[in-house]
Amino acid sequence: MGDYYIESDYICTWPNGAVITPNYLTKSFHEVISKSALPQVRLHDLRHSAATNLLELGFNVVQVAEWLGHESPNTTLKFYGHAVKSSKMEMADALEKVLEKC
What is the pLDDT of residues 33-64, one digit of tens each? Predict the structure, then answer.
């Protein structure tokens, strides 16, 4: 497309590089889900699941905040603190196992 291509860092773009709006993506996702046998989830539910899984996999809050595009890790903690808490429980269990070996 030469000079007509719109450069951006976005993943969801039209062939000319223009950003696809979140509302369009949400509507299109809903239409696909409605016509399928998949569970009826919202597009935002996938984002929430991905963030929770990343935290449970051991990525720190700063990394996940950057990945989500949050301005501050505090925002990430506000919404995903439950995943950090479960990670802390897993860490405590692992430390307890180490102490049992001593």
Answer: 999 999 999 999 999 999 999 988 889 999 99
In the prediction, which pLDDT does 90 show? 78
3-state class of 3 per DSSP?
A: helix
Please state, in angstroms and rounded to a whole number, the distance separating the CA atoms of residues 52 and 101. 31
Range of the structural domain that residue 7 is part of = 1-38
Say how many domains are in the chain: 2
What number of other Cβ atoms are within 10 A of residue 52's Cβ? 17
- Integer angstrom CA distances of residue 87 from 6, 32, 34, 47, 84: 41, 34, 34, 19, 5
Q: Provide the strand spans (E) within the chain.
A: none
Q: Do 6 and 26 fall into the same domain? A: yes
Angstrom distance (rounded) from CA 98 to CA 102: 7
pLDDT at residue 82 above 90?
Answer: no
